[in-house]
Design brief:
Shape: globular
CATH topology: pyruvate-formate lyase- activating enzyme
CATH architecture: Alpha-Beta Horseshoe
Order of helices and strands: EEEEHEEEEHEHEHHEHHEHEHHEEH
């Protein structure tokens, strides 16, 4: 199941006892025995970005320390908790016995970067010791996480092997950021991402089409294009707003005024304006292929701008090509 949180798109990994008939003998693309999965003791629900499909996951924190974004339902059943070093170390040891050749690791849950730097360094050092062929360690990062860490701390974490961060922008429009209780402003998002990039991190960002509703649609997408241009992330994902039952009422209440969802034609209009308006300092790998999207689109910006716009305009003229609503999910 693909879903979303304040820090980006996520894949929900079901525990083995949920559905015996489809137990994933390959966890995230890596073969791990059932006994190892049990020993790891995952605290469900467990999520990862779609691009971490081949990564081993270690939960070094549980839940989200903020957990107030009105569009995000992922960690409402969890209380934020920083796991003891002894537990983390034991789980690393379990996986290292059979998966020493592991190359990619994702640190969960939604707030791993909230850990004190000293403890994160301890985790990273041990991961590097146990997995000598590792090429990437990644985690989600909220703007506040990045701002709270000093530049020296971020540089140290990058030096220790944490090299990719997933950051949710959602929108660049400050009115909407407040209405969705993101806990950030456009200025703080730019500051946080710029700080991370200067420390050497690869940044993957996410925005949400339609999150301003009809009233704020143009303000949302123009401001978002501006923030994306300033940040110039290495990767950018565009999702489409779909509210889950668990947060629907909260979202509407916090928004503070009537909210009208965008129809497909207006979502495509936002997408076209975004692609047309982003002027990055360096090339961005762009994707709009999340389960929530109307159609799977991808390319590099600005190199493939014209090709992407051509696809979007064709979809406007041929709505029959769009993904059926029953197949879309957040």
């Amino acid at each position: 199941m693909i879903t979303n949180s304040a820090n980006g798109p996520r894949i929900l990994i079901q525990p083995f006892y949920y559905k015996f008939n489809i137990f994933p003998h390959k966890l995230n693309g890596i073969r791990i025995s059932i006994s190892i999965m049990i020993e790891l003791g995952y605290d469900y629900p467990l999520y990862r970005p779609p691009s971490e499909a081949s990564s081993v996951i270690f939960q070094i924190t549980l839940g989200c320390s903020f957990n107030k974004c009105s569009f995000c339902n992922m960690y409402r059943t969890k209380e934020y908790f920083e796991r003891p070093w002894a537990e983390i170390k034991a789980e690393i040891d379990v996986v290292a016995k059979s998966q020493r050749e592991t190359k990619k690791i994702f640190l969960a849950d939604g707030d791993a970067l909230n850990l004190p730097t000293k403890k994160l360094v301890q985790v990273l050092d041990y991961l590097n010791e146990k997995f000598p062929n590792m090429t990437r360690i990644s985690c989600y990062a909220m703007p506040k996480n990045l701002i709270q860490k000093s530049s020296d701390e971020l540089t140290l974490l990058h030096k220790k092997g944490l090299n990719m961060l997933y950051v949710g922008i959602e929108t660049g429009q400050d009115i909407i950021l407040k209405k969705i209780t993101k806990g950030a402003t456009s200025k703080s998002i730019i500051e946080a991402c710029t700080k991370a990039k200067k420390s050497g991190f690869i940044i993957s960002c996410m925005i949400i089409l339609g999150i301003g509703g009809k009233k704020y649609s143009m303000q949302h997408i123009k401001a978002t294009a501006k923030v994306v241009s300033e940040v110039s992330p290495n990767f950018l994902a565009a999702l489409t707003l779909i509210l889950e039952d668990g947060v629907y009422g909260e979202f509407m209440q916090k928004f503070g005024e009537p909210f009208e969802f965008l129809d497909d034609s207006l979502i495509l209009e936002e997408l076209e304006i975004l692609v047309s308006s982003v002027t990055p300092a360096s090339s961005i790998v762009f994707r709009a292929n999340h389960a929530s999207n109307l159609y799977s689109i991808g390319g590099n910006l600005p190199e493939d701008r014209d090709k992407i716009i051509k696809v979007v305009r064709n979809l406007k003229e041929h709505p029959e090509l769009l993904k059926p609503r029953m197949l879309r999910r957040f």
